[in-house]
Amino acid sequence: MGSHRGRGWRRTAAAVCAVLLAGAGCTGEPEPPPQPPDRDQPSAVAILEAFSARMLDDGAPAVLISVTDNGETWNHAAGVRNMETGGSAQVSDAVRIGGITESFVAVSVMKLVEEGRLNLDGQVSDYLPEFGTVLRPPGPVTVRQLLTHESGIPDFSVPLLASGPWEENMNQPLSLEQQLALAATLPWDGRLSRIFDYSRSNYTALALIVERLRGQEISEVLAADTATPLGLESTRLGGMPPETAVHGYVTLEGQRVDVTRPAWLTELPAAGALSTVEEVNRFYAALLQGRLLAPDAVTAMKGGYSQYYGFALRRWNNTCNNRFYYGLPGDVDGYGTIAMTSEDGSRQLAMAVAYPPAPPTLDLNPLISEMQDVAQEALNSLC
Fold this sequence. Notes:
Number of strands: 11
Order of helices and strands: HHEEEEHHHHHHHHHEEEHHEEEEH
Strand content: 15-25%
Low-confidence stretches: 1-39
Structural class: alpha+beta
């Protein structure tokens, strides 16, 4: 295991130690009350390196972390790119970012809203006429409900992965239309409408709306709206991972299976994108600093004060200034990713773990919850 330190590493480490010894509060509004020094509190670096070491001890192929704090950066890469061929993992290596893909899609949706071409409270069937005839929802469904996972639409991955051998289904490419057709094979539960109930089909429908209004494939729209303007060279939806990508694995009947290139993820707006931890941080900083959307659109994405999940953004407590971090966790076969960014974009953490190989499941990997706890503790230790 090793840490790959950026140019600002020594300054960052010194700043962390100085702040911890002085017990100073971080800048931000509202200003938190003075706190006595906690000399037993571990530094962010110690927290993250200890977690990384434990993941590798538990069989994780690789752990990648990038932390920014007011212009200073600390990067960490441990493990190997490929369990068959080796090669040291690098912080610049691409990984599957799972559900973080949804934040990119939500930005493209909100750009259409800003242009007046899409109404958040308009009915989905106004933009996708087949939505009502094919999926037959029990009542009206709005664009806003798709964004917040409150539509109650069935998750297409349930019938997909139950229809045959997992490895065969994993390598079956699916268009957006095919994804919704699979969702239509399941009944809606009307009781779930207007209550958060995660379904990958929500972002499939949103991606189809974007494609219809833009006249381009969703991968091209995401590139034009975010990746190209921000110079995110490794971030994309669609296509195969580069040779330098970190490989992810599951186990089937006791045998390790590489899941780096599953065809069913190629056009999956809910979980299919590739990126790096550094580029994920750059994306969320640009979003929260208003460099991708107007301030009112960013506010809408954050959700109401009583909501922990907005438009593909969820939040965690920022104890440095009694405010919030925003971002998303990403959980997909073989990989877990977590991204948290302060409201002003000045403090960030993105972490990706190639999970210890285990049998695939539609349930969340329990490690993703632990990753969120570790990331939040590390960020809050920086103030």
